[in-house]
Amino acid sequence: MGFCVSGTRATIMGIGTAVPTNVLQQSSFSDYYFETTNSNHMVDLKAKFANICEKTMIEKRHLYMSDEFIRSSPSITAYNSPSLNLRQGLADAAIPQLGAEAARHAIADWGRQASNITHLVFCTTVSGCMPGADFELIKLLDLPLSTRRFMLYQAGCHGAGISMRLAKDLAENNHGSRVLVVCSEVITMAFRGPSKSHMGNLVGQAIFDDAAGAIIIGAEPTGNERPLFEMVSASQDIIPGTEEMVVSKLYEDGIVYTLHRDVALHISRNIEGLVKKALERASLLTKDWNEELFWVVHPGGREILDKVESSLVLRKEKMDVSRKVMAQHGNTLSSCVIVVMDEMRKRSRKRGLPTAGEGLEWGLLFSFGPGLTVETTLLRALHNQEPNA
Ligand SMILES: CC(=O)CC(=O)SCCNC(=O)CCNC(=O)[C@H](O)C(C)(C)COP(=O)(O)OP(=O)(O)OC[C@H]1O[C@@H](n2cnc3c(N)ncnc32)[C@H](O)[C@@H]1OP(=O)(O)O
């Protein structure tokens, strides 16, 4: 069983992910963090941080920075110390490396040669240099020098949504094009010690982590391509009056962000309207959002998933995949929803379901970022990639 591809619409033809090998357990992270940042004297703050870590429902996280690097970099473990050179040096290497690993998996999943890629959209929330991570990726993957590149720095957690929307436009308007989207994130720029007067930093230290995600997007699949999802529509909205909710600035001591207590509240108050808008735009008359839709929601934090779920009156299992990715990876910024999509199609295949979208045809992908900005992608799951499905 499966659904047919409709004409020239962009489809997702391959997905890949990558994480660094250094794994931190969340249950012991407060001890590790306060020890390595020489902050054990801040007893009350440490207890508060341990409580936040527990409430995240994250189990483990992956970190590009090694234990040795963290312990030998006092300018990084301080709350604020000039450290941009050191941070940028690490990001210069990490962002393309991790992105290339995810891209190799996506290309293998797609099944065609890297030389068939025509466009590259590279996105990261951290780092900034020219020639950039997109340029490095061309070298690492030996992509054609004529690959048309788009580099998005300081993209935010909604970066995958932006990149996919751009890739959709490219794929649908350039006959035969195959767009490689890479979202690569490491928290190297923003890892810092605790401060009593900056709780948003502490929340971020408890949830943000490293991962890369890559996808291949193209229209009009050829015989040997087996698309997973069709991208029916892709849109962006700002939630009015929320620009102070998530703010990230680059200083000489790295990226400093503020996370307001009410991020989840604002997202959940607006999500129903955005769902309706996306469905109406496609003239989709779904009545039961539990029975008829699959959900790929950015795991920004436990509270965001909880509140989105309750405001849309979704059954708990509808957010299972986002929760699993959050538990196993934390919030990996822009790459997170790609990891969720990958997990969903793997789980669907394992369970023998007919589509990569938990057996359903229609689904919504949401990524959230500063602004607050919401990227909404309406997906149509085509078929499972299991050869005999
Ligand atoms: C949306 C985007 O732009 C993209 C992104 O992904 S950015 C990241 C967005 N994610 C977030 O902002 C995190 C969302 N928050 C959460 O998931 C949850 O609040 C959490 C897991 C961090 C904590 O769980 P919780 O159920 O709220 O725990 P709770 O016991 O109420 O709070 C723990 C403490 O942290 C404080 N706290 C939580 N979030 C805070 C924040 N953003 N700023 C300051 N303090 C905060 C609480 O006030 C509380 O303090 P006290 O101990 O003094 O009471």
From TrEMBL:
Domain Chalcone/stilbene synthase C-terminal per the UniProt entry, residue ranges: 230-382
The keyword Lipid metabolism is assigned to this record: no
InterPro entries for this protein: Chalcone/stilbene_synt_C (IPR012328), Chalcone/stilbene_synt_N (IPR001099), Polyketide_synthase_type-III (IPR011141), Thiolase-like (IPR016039)
Active site: 157 (acyl-thioester intermediate)
GO biological-process terms attached to the record: pollen wall assembly; polyketide biosynthetic process
Top-level taxon of origin: Eukaryota
Keywords (A to Z) from UniProt: Acyltransferase, Transferase
Residues in Chalcone/stilbene synthase N-terminal domain copies: 8-221
Family: Belongs to the thiolase-like superfamily. Chalcone/stilbene synthases family.
The protein, known as: Chalcone synthase
Organism per entry: Triticum turgidum subsp. durum (Durum wheat)
Lineage of the organism: Eukaryota, Viridiplantae, Streptophyta, Embryophyta, Tracheophyta
